[in-house]
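User: Could you go from structure to sequence for me? I need the amino acid at each position, not a summary. C-alpha cells:
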C-alpha cells in the first residue's frame, strides 16, 4: 500500500494577503507602457515615416518590408537553377511532411533523350494551396534538392479559392532563379 503524505500549505503573511500591492505593481507597468507609447517613438517609426505615437501600422501606405527579421518565413515557391532547369525531382518529401497537406505533387518520368535524364522524374503537377499552408517551413527544410524556398512575402491575396492554389508555373514565376546552389545531378553517378 502506498504511503500517504499530507502536506501543510504555508501560511500567507499579511503582506501577501493584501492584494493592493500586486494590483499597484501591475497598474504601474501598464501605465509605463502607455506613456512610452504615447510620448515616445515606437519601433520602426523612423524608417516607416510615422509619427511613432501609435502602434498601428498604416497599411498599405506603410509596409514592414525593410523591418522583416532575417528568420521570417513567408510563402513557399519553387526555384530553377542557373540553366533554367527545374530543381524539383519529385521526391514528394515536402508533400509527405506538410502538416496541413497543402502540397500535391504528381510525378512524371523523364524521357531518355532529355538532357536532364540523369534524374528519374520531375513533377507533372505541383500545387500548393496557400489557404491551407501554415508557413511552417518544413517543406524547405526537407527538400534535398533546394528546390523550394520560403520567400519574404506576407501579402498573398486572391478573390477566389482557385486563385489561392498556386500551380507549378506560378510557383516557378514567383520563385525565380537561384544562383550558387549545389547541383547534385550534374554528374551521372
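Assistant: Here is the amino acid at each position, in order:
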Amino acid at each position: 500500500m502506498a504511503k500517504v503524505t499530507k502536506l501543510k500549505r504555508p501560511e500567507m503573511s499579511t503582506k501577501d494577503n493584501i492584494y493592493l500591492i500586486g494590483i499597484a505593481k501591475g497598474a504601474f507597468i501598464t501605465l509605463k507602457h502607455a506613456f512610452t507609447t504615447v510620448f515616445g517613438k515606437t519601433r520602426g517609426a523612423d524608417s516607416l515615416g510615422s509619427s511613432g505615437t501609435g502602434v498601428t501600422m498604416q497599411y498599405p501606405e506603410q509596409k514592414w518590408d525593410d523591418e522583416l527579421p532575417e528568420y521570417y518565413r513567408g510563402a513557399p515557391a519553387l526555384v530553377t537553377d542557373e540553366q533554367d532547369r527545374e530543381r524539383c525531382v519529385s521526391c514528394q518529401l515536402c508533400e509527405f511532411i506538410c502538416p496541413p497537406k497543402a502540397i500535391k505533387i504528381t510525378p512524371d518520368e523523364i524521357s531518355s533523350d532529355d538532357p536532364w535524364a540523369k534524374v528519374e522524374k520531375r513533377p507533372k503537377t505541383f500545387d500548393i494551396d496557400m489557404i491551407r499552408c501554415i508557413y511552417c517551413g518544413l517543406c524547405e527544410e526537407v527538400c534535398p534538392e533546394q528546390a523550394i524556398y520560403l520567400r519574404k512575402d506576407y501579402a498573398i491575396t486572391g478573390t477566389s479559392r482557385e486563385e489561392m492554389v498556386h500551380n507549378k508555373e506560378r510557383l516557378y514565376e514567383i520563385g525565380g532563379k537561384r544562383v550558387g546552389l549545389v547541383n547534385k545531378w550534374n554528374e551521372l553517378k
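One structural detail worth keeping in mind: The mean pLDDT is 83.
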